[in-house]
Amino acid sequence: MLSTMQDGPLSLAKLLRHGTKVHAASEVITWTGSEARRETYADLGKHAARLAHALRSLGVTGDQRVGTFMWNNAEHLAAYLAVPAMGAVLHTLNIRLFPEQLTFVANHAEDHVVIVDGTLVPLLAKNLSGMKTVKHVIVANGDASALAAPEGVTVHSYDELLAGQPDEFEWPEIDERSAAAMCYTSGTTGDPKGVVYSHRSIWLHSMQVCMSDSMRLAQEDTALAIVPMFHAMSWGLPYAALMVGASLLMPDRFLQPAPIAALLAAEKPTFAAAVPTIWQGLLAHLDTNPQDISHLREVVVGGSAAPPALMHAFEERYGVPILHAWGMTETSPLGSVARPPASATGEQRWGYRYTQGRFPASVSARLIDDDGQERDWDNEAVGELEVSGPWIAGGYYGGSDGAPSPDPEKFHGGWLRTGDVGKISQDGFLTLTDRAKDVIKSGGEWISSVDLENQVMGHPAVAEAAVVGIPDEKWDERPLVAVVVREGESVTAEQLRDYLADKVAKWQLPENWTFVPEVPKTSVGKFDKKRIRASYSEGKLDISQF
Amino acid sequence: MLSTMQDGPLSLAKLLRHGTKVHAASEVITWTGSEARRETYADLGKHAARLAHALRSLGVTGDQRVGTFMWNNAEHLAAYLAVPAMGAVLHTLNIRLFPEQLTFVANHAEDHVVIVDGTLVPLLAKNLSGMKTVKHVIVANGDASALAAPEGVTVHSYDELLAGQPDEFEWPEIDERSAAAMCYTSGTTGDPKGVVYSHRSIWLHSMQVCMSDSMRLAQEDTALAIVPMFHAMSWGLPYAALMVGASLLMPDRFLQPAPIAALLAAEKPTFAAAVPTIWQGLLAHLDTNPQDISHLREVVVGGSAAPPALMHAFEERYGVPILHAWGMTETSPLGSVARPPASATGEQRWGYRYTQGRFPASVSARLIDDDGQERDWDNEAVGELEVSGPWIAGGYYGGSDGAPSPDPEKFHGGWLRTGDVGKISQDGFLTLTDRAKDVIKSGGEWISSVDLENQVMGHPAVAEAAVVGIPDEKWDERPLVAVVVREGESVTAEQLRDYLADKVAKWQLPENWTFVPEVPKTSVGKFDKKRIRASYSEGKLDISQF
């Protein structure tokens, strides 16, 4: 029996029409370093129409890919709207990828056009000759003549190209399961993998961002989107803002603590989103340059685990609650959000808030052990987290002539294998303890590398510590700790081991230690444990063992 | 280009699993007149599984219809979950329909089973012999032996039928566009019309109920659902509550002001939903029996326009904001919600709050005039409201052997003609001024019957007044006012006309007046203008004309 409901698609053209008409007076506010430039959503709608006409004039048709190599600003937001709404596919290029990754993703996605911010022209120029399908580069917010294009590539000025284009565009009707946008994961193994979001998945995800169990983004918010628009769609804020009429505050390239503090003071946003390192930096700045930031009703932290000390500092010293969330490029990224249950009080609330959070109804979750068995939700049993739902990837982009790649290491039976290891409480709160590839499998038991790192980093002489598993004949694997000593301090491996003795189970105590000047990092600032393991196996590390 | 997103359906089986697992500790609380009986969502999940097994045991298969003839209580909620999740279709029977309408809808939907509350057995018994497809009646919360069944109908005790059934059910995977639930509109013309909601439409609508631009239903809420579960699915509260883990407070049959006040005192809900007459009654009760109700963070009012005086009384005397909303059975029902823009202050906020509200992104709206032309959103141009979206009906149920009825009077070109007439502001706020069939078309201009009614009811001697258009040779139509005089007062038509003289445009001043003991009402308590017009044309009204 069929329902009698209407059958129209969920589409970004509909979102664009809604946001720019019903919420015409809301604004995208772009920071210029000293002041803000403002565009109402009504004007943004016209801007997006001009951009769509300009892209058509360059031959963009069908589902061709349009790359962006941009900061968070009004021009990037116009591309977020115009490109999918015209039926093409937005490809946000991560400006922090290594050159070989950058050319790989542009070629794999077959980007036809790239829109680039003026200040990023030098970075793009180094890679452009390797991008074989790019025919046009549009330079926004800067001087197009600064770019010497390789043969076969035409360079355009964004302003000149859009000038005189019509303010309205006949946005086509699009099947909701069509591609709208794509983003490559900067995985630490192999080539980057493409995740392709649909109009449907983005629509549903945008609703979720505005729901009570997630970020509660609302019309009365001004949302500071520090998380880059090339990182998992800036966690969904741009589209969600258009959906409910929240204003968007865009920091452009001004991501250091002092300019962030300045734009907080000038624009007083009510909501913000960024990874922990941004908040760590801001906290240090504020502690020496006090400023009232209580206009922030809440800030969401994800990308990596938020340290409890950071959460307490923001709440107790600045009156700003940090909302902890978990997600990844493959999950659009909203996976779980740590809003404590109403029944929790006092310290209990903090306990819930430290976790990675609870799953919304659209995200189903399970924990799977080494034998493929599902584990209980008892906050003790540990397994690899698997998720499924309408904004969760079921495969990676297989290129224009290939079906999505099934990739059984990541996807099986309708579930995404997240590669994250953890436990879930009876009331559905997720606590991640490690990455599956980093967990140390010692004598049939799992040792969390992250737990060990946190314990070692608790020592006052330690600036950073990374723990990896190294092969062991007897136990399969044993932990190796790579320590960065704090400037002006000194400590020995033996002292650190003694320090750990009453903090971790005896069988988890590491025998292998090395001191390094710094922990290698990935392009997104996470510990690059693959490189530590490689250095170890190449014999490049000086190991203390006892 | 296809996205790489997973392709699973949005379904009520998924909602059931989520709500009863992740929000296992949340509760459905049913009022018994003096105290509450409580069931956790974990237990509700087992309850729903037992009900599904019981229904299967009665032969319910495929998409057969299961009717409910029930108050708002835990058993009705179990049916909301079990029936659609098992693949069958829930048909909520409106207990206030006239007998011929009730048998019509049960026969048209071909209900196979009806679940009835004990206290409603006498009412159902009167109609049961006319319900030709009903084979089983299940009596919940009462004595099954009190029902003498017609031949071919078996009567069951709910408790006995469910006892011993398994606590788990293998909920099937269902296409998201399949029928989940149906509700007939109690229109004032012709037979009731069936609206069939899909798993998809209910899922999306439930998300919307929890979004910042709608009711903001949240895990920390206890939601008092006064609006009946047979009226447009209790405005979506039951499913939305399971989605985010809000507890549900169910008043069962205790809908009078005193018991509502008692259950407010006992359970201190944070949110509530009902039509204006309920709030009017509660207000009168509270004014003579003061009670703190500030635990209500917000109450939503819809079904008919909320009088501004009611909104002020609740907010200023009891600290409870009334949230005005518009919708209808055909819109699931969430259409628009009156949350003022952040920029509005003071009296401006009230101005926005009196309106029917703003449309969420999923509901597109337009105003159409007599010539089929779209009108501007300038808060002046008046037209019939048309809406479209994923939880808006595109037709009526055509019976099991028919496609959905296209019904061009209600549906055209992918839009629902709401039958409501009004205007929309530039920032998207809807103000309804009349029903399309009640607007009075006089000399090419439209006179709002509702505006005239409100003006006449402003006179201290008037208890109620209804205005209808009657045929006029010169002007096509002219207004007729039917007045109910307040007890102990007296007033003449001439005095009322003088009273109106400086309140409405001269050409709108009514020439035709009649005094009646009461205004006839529909089964849902609205003025039944069809009956007033019929009385007029049958010459049954005593008209003063001047």
From TrEMBL, chains A, B:
Highest taxon, organism lineage: Bacteria
Ligase is among the record's keywords: yes
Domain AMP-dependent synthetase/ligase: 27-397
Pfam family, one: AMP-binding
CDD domains cross-referenced by the UniProt entry: ttLC_FACS_AlkK_like
GO molecular function: ligase activity
All copies of domain AMP-binding enzyme C-terminal, residue ranges: 452-526
Annotated keywords: Ligase
Name of the protein this chain belongs to: Long-chain fatty acid--CoA ligase
Organism: Amycolatopsis ultiminotia
